[in-house]
Amino acid sequence: MSPSLIITAYSLLFLLLFSVSLFVFIIVRRLVLEQRKVQFDRLYKQIEKDILEAISLLDPDFSLGVARKYGRHRAVLTRVLLDFGDIIVGEGRDQLRIIFNQAIRGRCLRGVASRRTTKRLQSIRLFIIFFDPVDSAFLFRLLDDKPIIKLAVINALARIPSPETMRQIFKAFEEDTGFTVQAYFNIIFGLGSRTEPLVKAFLNKPLPVDKLGLLVELVGAIPLQTLYEDVVALAGHPDKEIRIRVARTLGKLLIPKTVDTLIALSSDGAWEVKAQAVKSLGRMKNLKTLDVLERSLFSPFWYVRYNAGYGLAEIGEEGVRRLKEVAGQEEDRYARDMSVMVLNDMIFPGEAA
Amino acid sequence: MSDVLHAILHSVNIVILIYFFLINAFYLLFTVLSLFGLFRHRELTTYISFKEIFRLPLVKPISIIAPAHNEEKTIIESVNSLLALEYPVFEVIVVNDGSTDQTLGALIRSFQLEKSRRVFRKVVDHKPVKGIYTSPSHPKLVVVDKVNGKKADAMNAGLNISRYPLFCAVDGDSLLEKDALLKMVRPFLEDPEKTVAAGGVIRLSNCCMVKCGQVQEVRLPCNALARFQILEYFRAFLGGRIGMSMLKSVLIVSGAFGLFRKDIALQCGGYRVESIGEDMDLIVRMRRHLHNMKRPFEIRFIPDPICWTEAPETLKCLARQRNRWHRGLLDTLLHNKSMLFNPRYGITGLFAMPFYFVFEMLGPFIELLGYIMFAACITLGLVNYPFAVLFFLVAVVLGTLLSLLSILLGEYSSECYPRRQDILILTLFSLLENILYRQWLTLVRVLAFFDFYRGKEEWGAMQKKGFAQAR
Prior knowledge:
The complex is a heterodimer. Chain A has helices at 3-57, 60-69, 74-87, 91-112, 117-129, 136-141, 147-157, 163-175, 180-191, 196-203, 209-221, 228-232, 240-253, 259-265, 271-284, 290-296, 302-315, 317-328, 333-345. Chain A is mainly alpha-helical. Chain B has one domain: Spore Coat Polysaccharide Biosynthesis Protein SpsA, Chain A (Alpha-Beta Complex), CATH 3.90.550.10. Helices cover 52% and strands 15% of the residues of chain B. Chain B is built from 16 helices and 13 strands. In chain B, the strands form two sheets. Chain B has a ten-stranded mixed beta sheet with strand order 3-4-5-2-1-6-11-8-12-7, with helices on both faces. In chain B, strands 10-9-13 form a three-stranded mixed beta sheet, with no helix packed on it.
């Protein structure tokens, strides 16, 4: 036999064995998973029934009994606690916390130190749901972990909005870079108006544009109306992204004093800023803005015209009157078509904007 | 003379052998990378609760653009599936691209459409719009009726009419899973600056039971051709594109389901109307544009958002579809040939484009050459039969192994087919596809090359059966 024939024969043998093993693996995996699923579902239903009873009885002894009864089936119990922990609040969650502390907490503490990211994440998620202030010290240590773990920890810390945890969250926000920055929006947004002093302090810090923009956006989303002056101060920021966000935020805060800032932004050099300022002016529902909005309908930029049209529609009767006027003129067909479209759209209430 | 012929045959055979090993080594590499990619993705999504995260006010609204040409049998289910999507803010723009059947009529009747006087900004060019329809009962739906262009032309019309910063390209005959957009938008949330496009998995809906625009029961198609295609889709999406995504080399985001940043697409001039494979063409031009701008970017493939589509079930339809795909590949590669082996375009120019050029574009020719050489060797009595038989078996088993690996990937990404015997059937088909089906496809792709040079522009429409309805 020639060497090439021998090599080919061995290759075939190896590939055949590999393929057959893979096929067997897929089938066996399926069988095992199906079997496990049946057992899992049966046990899940039992635990679910007992947990629902614990939640309705609100008896700590009963909850302890449930924890002891299912302590051996930690995987299923963990799943049930994750599912219920997300939706049950108040005293019901206290019962779940008793079960967690009794049956799962030790395992979770080990899970947090696990080498497997999945396990670490699952453990941290449980800590997020059943947060106990005594755990905060060890959670602080995890702030040096991978970005995803760090984010999970920050999420957990956001559950106890003490000055110390908030300081840690803002410190992490200041230090973090890249994609996780966006996730801080959710976290800080969840903390609500208690973040006001820290947001104010950070708005006056020299931050990168993405972080500063995110904070400006937060002021409008929460909303933190007392910070409008700090936002107005950024209206002259050299970066247009910040000016866009300033315009958007002012449209959410709806402070009458900021109309002039928005009018100034509506004649900004960047059309994106103009478009956003015009949109916010529409939301202000202030008759002072009518002329600006009407003028903006004749803008060469489609988005500016679009926002001006819907802005006028939002103002109400007088805005609609102006729209009709523009719709009736013949000098600028772009302004006319936009007004006609907005008037036509007003027939359909609830149109997605 | 005979010695010279022998030497030529021997050299060609060596080239074909090297090619065979290289192509399979790459496919194996992609599959292994896909496994890693899939595990990493699973790790991340264990923590991420989509419902929580996507309530973020920063999540960008999406315009879903669905071009439809003669889709009367599937369009209503498709639009229902799109309107039922779970996403904070989105609009559905159906572009009726000059259908000659009742596509528009069916839409008007089913969704109580009324003619709107909506105006739009014509940033990219397209054939004239005959009318825009909106529905008081479905405010998220906009139907655009336009003169027939091609799919790219319809997409451009949709791009102009769309209002949101991200757009999702879907086929008029596709069904999206309810949470598909939520999953797809994740990379845009993680890295909004760098992410410019993302693609999801396409699966075949043939024989699946559909209710209210959602696949209720996943079944293996009854048709043999569709079963072969399932294996191809598995290999392409799970084996290939996740691996390519790991290497930052995604060149195709399927036109049936892809999410893009509108500003970048518009900066590239939207879809190229003359293109045959408009999906690949857009991605390649986006890459070229972003490389030219020296702007860091990412095009991602996400393994869990699923889009269901109907596969052709006759040889004629399949041949037309594959002919168009191959012409599209040729058109895109040749249109952007300056990127090939050009270090200026980074990994796109040095790896992704050459890979598609050597293994996807020239692949059918090399394969055909292999068959011709084998026939020539038989005629000249030069065949070492034990080696030839063994080599053929190696090729078959290697192909089956790759299919099995992609089935395994399917099992890890989501349980692909619920019945155990389905795995057995798919394995059997992975063996069978090496006999005749593979050779037939090679021939179809080679013929596509000649059609391309003859300037054939036929789209390759397929006969739709419509979705099987669950009770």
